Amino acid sequence: MTAADAQEGAGGGRFALLGNPNTGKTTLFNRLTGLRHKTANFPETTLEARVGRVELPTEGATETAAIIDLPGIYSLELDQLEAEVCRAVLEGRAAPTGETVAAPTAVCVVADATNLPRNLMLVGEALRRRLPTVIAVNMIDLARKRGITVEPAALERALGCGVVCISAREGEGSRTFRQRCRELGSRTTRRRVLAKGCERGLRKSTRRFLTERWMPGRIRSQIVWTA
User: Fold this and answer.
1) Which of 51, 120, 136, 204 has the lowest tally of Cβ within 10 angstroms?
2) 18, 126 in Cβ contact below 8 A?
3) What global pTM score does this model have?
């Protein structure tokens, strides 16, 4: 796929895919785009950028949007090249080679359902950018096997953005996630997002969103620590 193809297929907007390393972010990118993607670099860096097209369901038709797989990072505030590139893309100051430099239509944050407390810090930082946002709580199948139940409705009320539980590897929740992306791409008003610094409150309240059932000690200690 050429850069021109990506731009032509961006009628449904352009989405930035953000997440910690090892959350299955690239697996989700591959699930959404299939073979409809290209590999480039971010200007003046050796960081690889993958840009693809994703089909979003609409009434009686299918809308196509562009999606950028950003480097995996633990925080947007880190003094490192990967974090700087992510900040620049979200602020509309940079784009992969061949792409138009502009802020994304929306941000899709991928979080690990088996380690949600740790991932919420990046979620909070992303919401502070005040872009329309949807959270993909990935690896939900592994979480269930470990006795972890995630309540997306409760997370949505607290975060003020859409939350979808998915398994990128198995395809679970993929259609629902695409629908949420389409809704973000078509909105003219932006949803309420967290004020600066609220991610600390999120980490403290995480226990409300997880139900402990026969959980390994390591995961249990993480949830107690955030309560």
Assistant:
1) 204
2) yes
3) 0.78
